[in-house]
Amino acid sequence: MSVEVMAPISGKILEVYVQVGDEIHEDDELLSIEAMKMENPIYADSPGIIAEIKVKPDDEVEEDQVLLVLK
Known about the structure:
The structure is a single chain. A 4-stranded antiparallel beta sheet has the order 1-8-6-3, with no helix packed on it. A 4-stranded antiparallel beta sheet has the order 5-4-2-7, with no helix packed on it. It contains no helices and 8 strands. 20% of the residues are buried. Strand 4 and strand 5 (38-43) form a beta hairpin. It is globular and about 35 Å long. It is 0% helix and 54% strand. It has one domain (3-70): CATH 2.40.50.100. The protein is mostly beta strands.
């Protein structure tokens, strides 16, 4: 079963802290989004392994866009 990590807000990807294959735990910081001149960290809601990363730094994202896929 895969879990999609969605953007909670529109903005620009500042940094991605994980790579495909990384094992993550609940509340690990996955990436950060700049919105309204503030850095917003995105945390894991559940444990898993990073299966796919759909964004990279400087990408503009929309609210509810898929950022990462966990398995």
